[in-house]
Amino acid sequence: MPSPTERVLTWFGVDDAWERPRPAIGRQDVVLAVSVEAISLLALELVRSSGGLENTDVPVWTEWFAVSTGAVLLLGRRRWPLAVALLAALHMFVAGVTMPEVMGQLSLQIVYFVALLSGVAWARDRRAMALVVCSIVLFMFAWLTWQFALGSAVQEWLDEEDLTETTGVFAPIPAAIAITLLINAIYFGGAIVGGGVSWRAARQRARLQDQAITIAAQAGRLREQAVVDERLRIARDLHDVVAHGVSAMGIQAGAARRILDRDPDAARTALSHVEEASRDAVTQMRRLLGTLREGEGEDRSEARTTDAGVADLPRLVAEVDGQGLAVSLDVVEEQDGAASRLPRGVGLAVFRTVQEALTNVRRHSTADTVSVVVRVDEHAYAEVEVVDNGRPRHGTSGSGLGQLGIRERAATHEGQVDIGPRVTGGYRVRVRYPLGAAS
């Protein structure tokens, strides 16, 4: 169990490796010093005018110089905290011996207090701080003790000569010295403890800042990894889509070659299918090259649903419906069969968007009703909208990676994404993919 001394040293950070940054003299230091200077000189002249400096024999300029040098010390209180604390203690001693009435002014007492507090709060070398502060306190109390001893001797002489009157429990001069000791104990103790509190608060802020930077860096790495993983998954899906298109091209080209001489019209039809499939494959590859980055660590055992599309949404909805959630599905087609003619990549993107949105509702929302609407105009756009009537469920905040996947997938097809709470209540996920002339 640590001793009281060890606890005190630990509290003041004597063995702590952290060093408080030492700022240069800044605007706030200048403003503080100038303000203290102006107030101190004004207070000095007010005291002089009221007769409070009648027993001071030094010239007026000396009094002004003492007050001004005290204020100037505050300029370096953060830059050179221990040096300023030592100079302030020396200033207090010299002024107290030569002009005690000036040293006792409130403005100079504030200067000494701030200088000592800053020495504890801003010192980088905590062992040196402990040595300097202890030296200052011991010197000051030795000075006060000497004054107390001198005062007691004077009091004894006055008692022997019967030249004093006692109006209280204690004799006047020792009582005055004793109250001075008490006041100084509170004065110096307050400055030292206040400086320790300031240093510990600064250290805590620095640690929290370091932790925040670490957390932000880790979150950034996780986010980047999530982006890479999602893009790799999209790449696999697109690979399957393009592979299907190339396979279809090979079949159609082979058929066209076999019937080219016997049925030119059928051969032209087969070749037109080859042309259409090639254009679709080229489009998918361009999007792949434009939006995906290379990655490693691909899990090839992951189950794929690359053939999924709008036609598979009823099965997906049926899996979710009835598990404490009522899900409705509407497919609105501007042209008959438009949904079935969607490009394979877009159809898969619509399916995955609905899949992810329903998963988020089940995990993170209080909703009991969800509406899924797919709108298809094969000459303009394909749009999917998932709307629920719930609120975020407490204690289930997600990582945001699901929504990130929706946005990444939409970006692959140059889609527009609108995700967020509705003004009328509930939550909405809406993605629009351009088709035809809109592409």
TrEMBL record:
<keyword id="KW-0902">Two-component regulatory system</keyword>
<dbReference type="GO" id="GO:0016020">
    <property type="term" value="C:membrane"/>
</dbReference>
<keyword id="KW-0418">Kinase</keyword>
<feature type="transmembrane region" description="Helical">
    <location>
        <begin position="106"/>
        <end position="123"/>
    </location>
</feature>
<feature type="domain" description="Histidine kinase/HSP90-like ATPase">
    <location>
        <begin position="349"/>
        <end position="435"/>
    </location>
</feature>
<keyword id="KW-0597">Phosphoprotein</keyword>
<dbReference type="GO" id="GO:0000155">
    <property type="term" value="F:phosphorelay sensor kinase activity"/>
</dbReference>
<dbReference type="InterPro" id="IPR003594">
    <property type="entry name" value="HATPase_dom"/>
</dbReference>
<dbReference type="Pfam" id="PF02518">
    <property type="entry name" value="HATPase_c"/>
</dbReference>
<keyword id="KW-0547">Nucleotide-binding</keyword>
<dbReference type="InterPro" id="IPR036890">
    <property type="entry name" value="HATPase_C_sf"/>
</dbReference>
<keyword id="KW-1133">Transmembrane helix</keyword>
<keyword id="KW-0067">ATP-binding</keyword>
<dbReference type="GO" id="GO:0005524">
    <property type="term" value="F:ATP binding"/>
</dbReference>
<feature type="domain" description="Signal transduction histidine kinase subgroup 3 dimerisation and phosphoacceptor">
    <location>
        <begin position="230"/>
        <end position="295"/>
    </location>
</feature>
<feature type="transmembrane region" description="Helical">
    <location>
        <begin position="82"/>
        <end position="100"/>
    </location>
</feature>
<feature type="transmembrane region" description="Helical">
    <location>
        <begin position="169"/>
        <end position="197"/>
    </location>
</feature>
<keyword id="KW-0812">Transmembrane</keyword>
<protein>
    <recommendedName>
        <fullName>histidine kinase</fullName>
        <ecNumber>2.7.13.3</ecNumber>
    </recommendedName>
</protein>
<feature type="transmembrane region" description="Helical">
    <location>
        <begin position="130"/>
        <end position="149"/>
    </location>
</feature>
<dbReference type="Pfam" id="PF07730">
    <property type="entry name" value="HisKA_3"/>
</dbReference>
<keyword id="KW-0808">Transferase</keyword>
<dbReference type="InterPro" id="IPR050482">
    <property type="entry name" value="Sensor_HK_TwoCompSys"/>
</dbReference>
<dbReference type="InterPro" id="IPR011712">
    <property type="entry name" value="Sig_transdc_His_kin_sub3_dim/P"/>
</dbReference>
<dbReference type="GO" id="GO:0046983">
    <property type="term" value="F:protein dimerization activity"/>
</dbReference>
<keyword id="KW-0472">Membrane</keyword>
